[in-house]
Amino acid sequence: MWPPLCHPPIPRRRPIITALMMINKHPLISSLQLLKNESEEVQSLCKSDGRGNNPEAPRSNSNDKIMDPKRVKRILANRQSAQRSRVRKLQYISELERSVTSLQAEVSVLSPRVAFLDHHRLVLNVDNNALKQRIAALTQDKVFKDAHQEALKREIERLRQVYYQQNLKKMENSTPPPSSNANASTEEEQLLK
User: Fold this and answer.
1) 8 Å CB contact between 43 and 80
2) Which Pfam family would be a valid example here (predicted)?
3) What are the Cα distances from residue 176, in Å, to 43, 167, 187?
């Protein structure tokens, strides 16, 4: 518990509010100035309350211990440290609030774009699936056409052989005189072409 002579009840919260107001109004004011003001305020209160300005206050050994300069100095250092910590905390909170505000603004700007791009992706996926199905159908059609073309080539080759064999049988059935053998060989060559 704080000594009654050095602990004013009301000014304890006032520096926090003052610090907030000063940080919000003037962000360039350093926290050291705030701490210095608080330190001077606390010291003046301690001097006015416990240093003999009140003649009715009796002096005793317990009051002397409370007013020990080292103890007062330590108490003031602790209060200053606490005040610095509070100021840092307020600055940190303020920075977080600014960060949240800027991030919310960025989200509100980017969310329509994300929605548009997501819709565009879905449309492209549908188009991609349709193209894949078309490619599969065309590939299957090509396989059928290649097989049909191979069958036609085999049929053409078979018909050529049949035609050649029929021409040979015709030539065998009608054996022309020996002088016409030269003409038959030229006819045979023409037929093969």
Assistant:
1) no
2) bZIP_1
3) 147, 14, 13
